[in-house]
Records
---
Amino acid sequence: MTRILGIDPGSQRTGIGVIDVDAAGRCRYVHAQALVLLAAEDFPSRLGLLCDGLEALIAQWQPQQVAIETVFMDKSAMSALKLGQARGAALATVVRHRLPVAEYEPRVVKQSLVGRGAADKAQVQHMVRLLLNLPEAKLQADAADALAIALTHAHMSATAGRTGLSTDALRRRG
Amino acid sequence: MTRILGIDPGSQRTGIGVIDVDAAGRCRYVHAQALVLLAAEDFPSRLGLLCDGLEALIAQWQPQQVAIETVFMDKSAMSALKLGQARGAALATVVRHRLPVAEYEPRVVKQSLVGRGAADKAQVQHMVRLLLNLPEAKLQADAADALAIALTHAHMSATAGRTGLSTDALRRRG
């Protein structure tokens, strides 16, 4: 059994999703939430909230692997900067715990869950609910995205196991 | 006596400058270096090197305040993202130590040291050497920029002290 923490970084809200995957590649929902960072009075404090929240979740759920989405680049430099800072803060927290991190492009997450790189968010969320057997009402959008990233990592790791490739090698190919 | 850590964040090299400032606003050079991050094999590991390096420097030099440059936005979204991640990782490390962080725009650093918001890098570095009484050969460019940021914070704090404004209030006005 491997516990995977998925992170969907954002400077206003960061999605967190935790799943367990067994040796056969079966996934089980453990936890999902959004860390809401808007209450902080300035940007450094927002990153502080993000790191503290992530620290607490790592302590509580003890993930063994982390998956994080790469950044969607169809954005302005200002959005990229803000998102980059949130992503950097999240990665810094994870790396400090010496947890292995895999990165997936949004199109890879969509391809992995829906079978189409251009799938829309609603389809991805539908598949997350289906794969983890979750009721309709339960999921906040950022939390669902984080679960999607964790599920993608579970699928990639299972594929890597079958083909004898390391996840890292697969990721470099992707 | 207040010890200030200046950070010039970058995803390839992050400049670090440490100065002491006394009650009269006199500044003294303590330490400066560049954390070179290019040796890391992937981007998360690079942020890991940045955080570990910064952690070690905070432990060694025990700064009481931190000053960091805001990001120069005349860049592509991809540069902004990379820079943002380095800045986010640096801020996360600093915030974890509960150190107060002040942010200064590049033009404020230039204005504060050279008296002109449009001053070039060579002028800024010249003034850093002059103000801290450093020999010509000593300074690496990123380290000099980090010292410039620390000096700006020392000047702003001294101004804040004389006018009865908090540095934070001054910063918000800037």
Note: Helices of chain A lie at 43-61, 77-96, 106-114, 121-132, 141-163, 167-173.
---
Amino acid sequence: MAEPLDVPALTATLDGTYVEVRNLTRKRLVEYAGVLDDARELDRAAFRERVKDVVVELAATGQTGLGFPPEHGGGGDIGASVAAFETMAFGDLSVLVKVGVQFGLFGGAILQLGTQRHHDAYLAPLVRAELLGCFAMTETGHGSNVQELGTVARYDLETREYVITTPDDAARKDYIGNAAAHARVAVVFAQLDVGGASQGVHAFVVPIRDDAGAPLAGVRITDDGRKIGLNGVDNGRIAFDGVRVPRENLLNRYADVSETGVYTSEIENPDRRFFTMLGTLVQGRVCVGGAGINASKVALAIAVKYALRRRQFGPPGEPEVLLLDYGLHQRRLLPRLARTYALHFAQEVLAGQLHAVFSATEEVDERTRRALESRAAGTKALGTWHASDTIQECREACGGAGYLSVNRFDALRADTDVFTTFEGDNHVLLQLVAKGLLTDYSSSFGELDQLGMVRFVAGLAVETVIERTAVHKLLERIKDVLPGSGDDSWDTDAGLLDPQYQLAMLRWREEHMLSGVARRLKRGMDGGMAPAEVFSRCQDHVIGAARAHVERLVLEAFVDKVASMAEGPNRDAMGLLCDLYALSVVETDRAWWIEHGRLSVQRSKAISREVSSLCRRVRPIAEDLVDAFGIPAELLRTEILAEDPLT
Amino acid sequence: MAEPLDVPALTATLDGTYVEVRNLTRKRLVEYAGVLDDARELDRAAFRERVKDVVVELAATGQTGLGFPPEHGGGGDIGASVAAFETMAFGDLSVLVKVGVQFGLFGGAILQLGTQRHHDAYLAPLVRAELLGCFAMTETGHGSNVQELGTVARYDLETREYVITTPDDAARKDYIGNAAAHARVAVVFAQLDVGGASQGVHAFVVPIRDDAGAPLAGVRITDDGRKIGLNGVDNGRIAFDGVRVPRENLLNRYADVSETGVYTSEIENPDRRFFTMLGTLVQGRVCVGGAGINASKVALAIAVKYALRRRQFGPPGEPEVLLLDYGLHQRRLLPRLARTYALHFAQEVLAGQLHAVFSATEEVDERTRRALESRAAGTKALGTWHASDTIQECREACGGAGYLSVNRFDALRADTDVFTTFEGDNHVLLQLVAKGLLTDYSSSFGELDQLGMVRFVAGLAVETVIERTAVHKLLERIKDVLPGSGDDSWDTDAGLLDPQYQLAMLRWREEHMLSGVARRLKRGMDGGMAPAEVFSRCQDHVIGAARAHVERLVLEAFVDKVASMAEGPNRDAMGLLCDLYALSVVETDRAWWIEHGRLSVQRSKAISREVSSLCRRVRPIAEDLVDAFGIPAELLRTEILAEDPLT
């Protein structure tokens, strides 16, 4: 690296289309930087109120309403709203999640599942945060399997009302953000019962508190109490004892019940209807993934800067060695830095697709929607696991200093911890990804549960399954770049830094893992095993295939980004990080490639050496690379960086 | 598993020699189970006082003084004190760590580094917790590299006092437990300066607060504030402005200064003296490792029981499937359960060795002491990483319920988080382990820093290094059990469940990794690289070799334990878990064995299949296996197990 990086230009590359909204958000975060201290020092009740006040104040600035239609006081720009949300992850995450609950989940449900009458009634006040609401989907006994929710909404023909009932404790709404203290209204997901026939899960607007904040008659609300993190958000439980709401409170974009009790829907198949409704809520997952990736940036910025100040051990009579000059410390931080950049660019592609689909003036075909949902699910899973892993490693890399709350890892780690299991448990989300790949988002995709997927796949020839996958079509020229046993380059380390080689490796793994899953499902079913048992036994392969798919998408996004940049030190640096990401992925899973005949032992060892070598090359630009994240200094005012007690 | 397990007998197997003291500790924990609620509900200041009160009350029962000499009010049983401490990890961990600070670190330093006059003056009151103290070693700028501490203790010939000074902010004592509020006295580690000559780090008893709790003149104490966890412990910073203490306050077991200012020590080499002093404090590491392992048991008990109650998805018209019937869920929890048992038995061996060395009536040779320290370091590293990993996985496996503090993962995870970096950073500890292996705990071991180790090893033939290792001697019959390429069993899955095969695999890896490190160090030095650079570049191999060593010791302990048990279902169950531990280790690192020609691709795949199969076989006895930990029900009274809202 002869020439220095142009850090502001790199920040601009990262900020992309939404540089303005990101900079405005940075400004807001600096104004509210004191919330980071409040999170440590206020008690739970006071901090909840503080966070609520911040959310209300932010709403007044327009910061939180960017994704809503202008006619209801919003900014009318989905992409901008995602960019603003992601950037808010540099600050306190209770504020972020409370914003997500109010505007993303509650507001999003009204917007996406409701019709004009709901928009007119609720959107403007909720965008202004005058009407606070919650999103009451999850129940104590039912999280991921939303279709089996226990709450019932029975249509009462006589009064033309829905009667909402919680039949047992397992069906109480649980972990609901905004429920314990602040929400006046809930969007409640319940089994719609019309004339004794169940029509599946639908969403209803249900008032839960009066203007003074007291629960309404028939609504029992309890507090979920202290949580690992996000204690500025008031999560709670809600149970309903025959609570009545007018017929108009059904969010009726996809189905309705007439006054006389006739159920109608444009979508005949109930499973497909259900998945279509859920699919409109995809923005939440996009936002959580992006938030996880940005929280990782904060942790890395602190840990990298600390490692460039803290010294430990060294030759006698000389200054001790900087932590980041240790090979192991580089290995702990720098591949995670590379993966953070990689995920950032993959998230950018995803957010762009979300914006395109939800801003489209013409009808978007179902396949495109399902593919978007799948990509959102996969990116959310990898982005949030990455956050947990990276923040934890950064904390440990800062030793005792990392354990002090003032140095930010406490809240970063605790607040993001639930990201891996809320807005869809990551494992369940990856199963969704695999289902999409294995069924090619076929028209029946929306109707298939896990066991249906098992039967569907087992009913096809493995070749048929694979030939329809997108990755299969990318693999035609594989022989040119991916050496196999017997090829000339099989035992050499030539071409490791060729993006085409790296892409071919990840594509080949994805295709091979998918066909492995298809084969296993088929074999299990052919052997007479019950579908549930077949699924259970190949579940880790299902997850593995989905992960391989997402890692391939992430690499493609990074490679494309590098290719799009102007030549110069910034592009060189991104190329270096892209190599480091790609080869780290291969190194981590190298046993698999060796086992499947696509990596020789010699080449595998060469990859490990190359990863170490890449780390040494990234080392001199590490601080520039974390500076380029553009995290305001006010948000990094940790003790370990602000003073200089280390030398 | 035709016959059911005998759970009480399995608990007795786990409790081992110290069943009585463990049961007594369980009883105490039940009496104080309310502290688990206090940890969630009290504010920081109140919880600190609560924890202090509990520690004082426990001291009155004799619970915390088991390791001290009877003549000073102790129980005179090192092994019992470790067993009691480990068992306390089932309860609140602030109480545990405060006990560790007061009796292990502070009391241990007085006991091990002091002489009769210190014992007479301090032991009885500190055992009764009338005198609260702290252990002031770590500084802001110096944690792991204790030899380079900045605090100075200058001997003033005129007044016959030591003058304790903190020269700069980097040298302030930091993260010191008991310092922020409760300690009256500190054991301060400082560079001893006698007549202008530095004699290296020594320990001094320094009063820091008056009876009313106010800092004494010249002592500046600040609070470390909120931490990720352990907020019942008052960690703080201490700086000294020329604080004077009498000559008698030097803890003078290994060195002394005469009234006339003559420095004397039985141990001439200053490095060896330093490491000898530090070595006497090994019990702290043994205790922390054991606590990590037992905290993992609590997490596993909750997660396994939850997975046997919570259902999700399944065939239409039937009850949903229990979480633990999913292959992936088994994969997430059961190998960790096996590893917990493995580490438990390894910890038992270690604690037994500690007891033997520290209870010996005759002088114990230095090599035995160094080997004990090495084993303690390695077991602490693996035991505490295991705790972080296991508790986190258990939290995620319980989804949203796992995120609620009432369900215990919050405090378990947050409180144990610092275990990986306190009492020795785990990476630094594994470097210590590797140093011992590579130098065969030679007489010069105690004198070698990292770079000295590099030079020492590089100066020997690789064969010489390896032939002196313990593992080399265990590998003589390797051909019989460890197939190599070309052998008949190379491509089959025969013998995977043979403990001799598993042991041979782990021994071979250890030896090969050690020789790889030796070769790399030699090559680097021969190539003219600076020792620091040589070390940096092969640091991950150093860590890898140490980890391989400890995993081998853990497997040996487990295999020995199984062999010692009477035939029957309990032994069968332990054999199953031992296989699962061993094959999980191989599976995780299978790329390495393949790369080094000791595992065929066919066999590698067979091992993955076998791990899944073993998980399915452990599944029916999983609840018995966590019940056998003997964690009192009062300590598992989490919401997710106490009620039944899931069905």
Note: The two ends of chain B are 28 Å apart (CA to CA).
